[in-house]
Design goal:
three-stranded antiparallel β-sheet; 4 helices
């Protein structure tokens, strides 16, 4: 089970855009717009990448009004 989760994490982080988002989130929470702009991504593309990261548990999000904010979920890296 842990091996499968680790494989999923590495697969999610294989994309440079997603790694950039995780790098940005390492300094603190950010909105979708704040994560999309440095990579030159549109919001729909950024949301797809963030969904991949959220599905494997690397990030989690909260929504306040129309703003969705993401933060790293360090528990995803406790697979062993």
């Amino acid at each position: 089970m842990a091996e499968r989760k680790l494989d999923d994490i590495f697969t999610a982080l294989a994309d440079p855009g997603r790694r950039g988002m995780v790098d940005r989130l390492s300094i603190g929470p950010a909105t979708v717009k704040e994560l999309a702009e440095p990579a030159g991504m549109g919001l729909p593309s950024a949301l797809k990448h963030l969904r991949v990261l959220e599905n494997v548990g690397i990030v989690m999000s909260t929504k306040t009004g129309r703003t969705r904010t993401y933060r790293i979920d360090t528990s995803a890296f406790h697979v062993i």
